[in-house]
Amino acid sequence: MAVTGGAIPGAGLVFDPAPFDPGRAEGDGVADTGRSLRTALLLGWRVESNWTDPLLFLIYVVAKPIASLLLLVMMIEIIGAGGTGQSDETVRTYVVLGSALWATLVAGISGPAWTVLEDRERYRMLKYLYVSPATFLVLLVGRGAARLGAGAIGTVVALVFSVIVLGLRVDVTAIEWPLLVVSLVLGLVPILAIGVLLAAVCLQTRQESWSYPEAFAGAMFLVTGVVFPLGVLPAPLQWLGLVNPVTWWIEGVRQAVLPGSPSGIGGAASVWTAVTGTPAPDGATIVLALFVTGALATLAATVIFRRSEHRARDLGLLDRTTGS
Amino acid sequence: MAAARPANPVFATTRGGSDPRTASDWSQREVLASNGRALIGRAYPRIRGMAREPSWVFFEILLPFLTTSAFVLVYRALQAPEAYVGFVVLGGAMAAFWLNVVWMMASQLYWEKSQGNLELYFAAPMNLMSILLGMALGGLVMSSTRAAAILVVSTLVYNVTFNVEQWGLVVVVFALTLTALYGLGMILASVFLLWGREAFHMTQLVIEPVYFVSGLNFPVGRLGALGAIAIATIPFAVGLDAMRQLVFAGQPYITGTPSPEVEALILAAMTVVFGLLARWMIRRIERMARSRGSLSIRWQ
Question: Chain-wide mean pLDDT for chain B?
Answer without folding.
Answer: 86
